[in-house]
Design a protein that fits this description.
Layout (H helix, E strand, L loop, with lengths): L4 E5 L3 H13 L3 E5 L2 H6 L7 E7 L10 H7 L4 E5 L4 H8 L5 E4 L3 H16 L4 E5 L3 H13 L3 E5 L2 H10 L5 E5 L7 H9 L8 E6 L4 H9 L4 E4 L4 H26 L7 E2 H14 L7 E8 L2 H8 L1 H18 L5 E4 L4 E5 L5 H17 L1 E4 L2 E4 L2 E8 L4 H17 L5 E3 L1
Parallel strand pairs: 1-2, 1-3, 3-4, 4-5, 6-7, 6-8, 8-9, 9-10, 11-13, 17-18
Antiparallel strand pairs: 12-14, 12-17, 13-14, 15-16
Helix pairs in contact: 1-5, 7-8, 12-13
The chain binds guanosine-5'-triphosphate (GTP).
The site of guanosine-5'-triphosphate has 17 residues, from β12, α12 and α13.
């Protein structure tokens, strides 16, 4: 994939080298200019720039002249400066820059690299802005868009709840406190009755900031609070921090639920998800169909080609499972070379056909590892019964799998 270009405008050669390194590490292609004149000479490239990192003071542009020049040419800019006085800061923040970073410490460069990585993926993050005032709503939307977020708006609490139904994968909601009918506090309560603090962040905003209102927002389910008029740096820091909180929890959740080797769901998650489904059918009116499968003679693969080759077979099998079964059927690696597919209420004939097709695909699969071509087969047990417990259905599937092994392997046995 072609790398996106980031323009680095910097007159100090050592800092230019650091920036080039950071930009490359963040996955972009660095383009450099050491003077304002060089920036102007690159005008033909502006449409191809993702953004620019702009040093405030250049030999031929000592007062930040390169900043409005680039912004006027639709190049989004992150300003880096060695000057930390309030006047420079205010001057810079009066421009619609992405961010403003002072070159005070090593941390500034780490922050810059992190910011670049985020700017590239922020379009995947949904944020909802709730405010009855059009101008306030549009202002916050505009600030978020500057950081490339996927922004949605709502003019009332009721509209916000509708947006939530349409976009349950929203990561952050920024809501005003003062709104007719349903205020921001009530909206927090409503959101929390459906989504926990671990799934979706809420930042409350109010012009009447006082400590008790902050506490009220937090006690009613908000993760954070901003007082109007807020400082842009504080706004962006809080937005980033609250989104990263949700992302970290998503990562932890994913790691806890998936098998590290194959990326399939793990045994714990499979049990957790399937067990209640079976309990739902306690009245025996609906069947549950579950397939348990085990790679044949897997020990001899390890013994002949080594454990790493065995791992490659497991990964290839998992990939084949992901390609073969639709997301409607939960698939998991439940043990060493053992996999389970919950086929829900699929009928006996369809389930047998689906699983037998998979068995054949497995038989036809070849995996190249270390110059060897390895082939494997799989044995499958399918149960299609009204067992009243999850343990019962697992035992049944295991018995059928054992029967498949006893019958010579590479076969599907259905009850
Ligand atoms: N490479 C690799 N091997 C594993 C992993 N987990 C379990 N195994 C191996 O899987 C093998 C399972 O062997 P057995 O239970 O004897 O079964 P089998 O050789 O597949 O024989 P049948 O099931 O009777 O066809 C053992 O050698 C385990 O060490 C893993 O994560 N990676």
């Amino acid at each position: 994939m072609k790398k996106l270009n980031v323009l680095i405008v910097e007159d100090s050669k050592p800092i230019l080298q650091i920036h080039k390194h950071l930009v490359t590490k963040a996955g972009f292609n660095p383009v450099t200019a050491e003077t304002f004149a060089e920036v102007k000479a690159l005008e033909h490239m502006f449409p191809d720039l993702f953004c620019a990192i702009i040093d405030y003071s250049l030999p031929d542009a000592p007062n930040g002249e390169a900043i409005p020049y680039l912004l006027d040419h639709n190049v989004p800019g992150v300003v880096m400066t060695g000057m930390i006085d309030d006047k420079t800061r205010d001057t810079i923040l009066n421009f619609p820059v992405i961010d403003y970073i002072t070159k005070e410490s090593k941390q500034a460069y780490t922050y810059l690299q992190h910011l670049l990585v985020k700017l590239r993926v922020n379009h995947l993050i949904k944020v909802l802005v709730v405010d009855d005032s059009v101008s306030a709503r549009e202002y916050i939307k505009h600030l978020l868009k500057r950081h490339n977020y996927d922004v949605y708006v709502a003019s009332s609490g009721e509209e916000a709840m509708k947006q939530l139904e349409l976009h349950p994968d929203l990561k952050l909601i920024i809501t005003d406190k003062e709104m007719p009918n349903m205020d921001g506090i009530e909206l927090c309560n409503k959101i929390r009755s459906k989504y926990s603090k671990d799934e979706m962040s809420i930042i409350g905003i109010s012009g009447q900031g006082n400590q008790s209102l902050t506490a009220k927002f937090i006690k009613n389910g908000a993760n954070d609070f901003l007082t109007k008029p807020f400082c842009l740096e504080e706004f962006y820091c809080k937005v980033l921090q609250n989104i990263e909180f949700i992302e970290s929890l998503d990562t932890i959740r994913k790691q806890a639920n998936t098998d590290y080797l194959t990326g399939l769901y793990n045994r714990r998650y499979f049990f957790e998800q399937v067990s209640p489904e079976i309990v739902k059918r306690f009245d025996g009116s609906t069947n549950s169909t579950l397939a348990m499968m085990d790679i044949d003679h897997f020990k001899s693969v390890n013994d002949t080609y080594g454990h790493d080759a065995g791992d490659e077979i497991l990964k290839a099998t998992a990939l084949l499972i992901q390609q073969h079964f639709s997301a409607d059927y939960l698939a998991a690696r439940i043990g060493g070379e053992e996999f389970c597919i919950f086929l829900d209420t699929l009928g006996r004939d369809e389930a047998t056909l689906l699983m037998d097709n998979f068995r054949q695909e497995m038989e036809n699969m070849s995996v190249e590892v270390g110059g060897n071509t390895i082939k494997c087969t799989i044995s499958i047990g399918i149960t299609h019964c009204c067992e009243k417990s999850f343990d019962g259905i697992m035992i049944k599937a295991d018995e059928l799998l054992y029967e498949a092994k006893e019958s010579g392997r590479n076969i599907v046995i259905t009850d």
